[in-house]
Amino acid sequence: MAEFLTDVETLRERARREIEKGPVTDAYGADLERVLQVLNEALATEIVCTLRYKRHYYTASGLYSEPVAAEFLEHAAEEQQHADRVAQRIVQLGGKPDFNPDTLTRRAHAGYDASADLIEMIKEDLVAERVAIASYTEIAKWLGDGDPTTRRVFEDLLAQEEEHADDLRGLLERIPQEKKG
């Protein structure tokens, strides 16, 4: 059986003394300010992705648009859930979620897209999902054991972003694309 590194009385005394820190204790091993910055970048990413998917949902047209638009709407709802989850974690860590629309696209990892062509919409959404997958993988590795709760948040988001990328790849494979040249 493993022993605690800190005796119970010391843990209790610290918990009382630093009660205003909420869940952030001396055991927290990450750079809190940097974690909050990364979380706010992820928040911006998720909001921009929500907006991109919503735009694509409303503007999708053509022979194959109905099932594709339905997928866009489902992804938009899931990206909004991601944004909510990230914002909640920021608050838990004592930070302030940054919803400033003036800086969203600058802070987001993935870009916004205003494509009019259905295939281009799918491709741009797939690119954005791949960017999120790459950045969330790096973030989860960077967090390591320093903040296991935030790492798990990113791992959960990562799993769903991989699902989105797979969905979009499947749509591209099912929809006939024009031959160029």
UniProtKB/TrEMBL annotation:
Keywords: Iron, Iron storage, Metal-binding. SUPFAM superfamilies: Ferritin-like. Fe cation binds at E46, H82, E129, E161, H164. It comes from the Bacteria. Its cofactor is heme b. Residues 29-179 form the Ferritin-like diiron domain. GO terms for biological process: intracellular iron ion homeostasis. Pfam families: Ferritin. GO terms for cellular component: cytosol. GO terms for molecular function: ferric iron binding; ferroxidase activity; heme binding. The keyword DNA-binding does not apply. This is Bacterioferritin. It comes from Streptomyces sioyaensis.
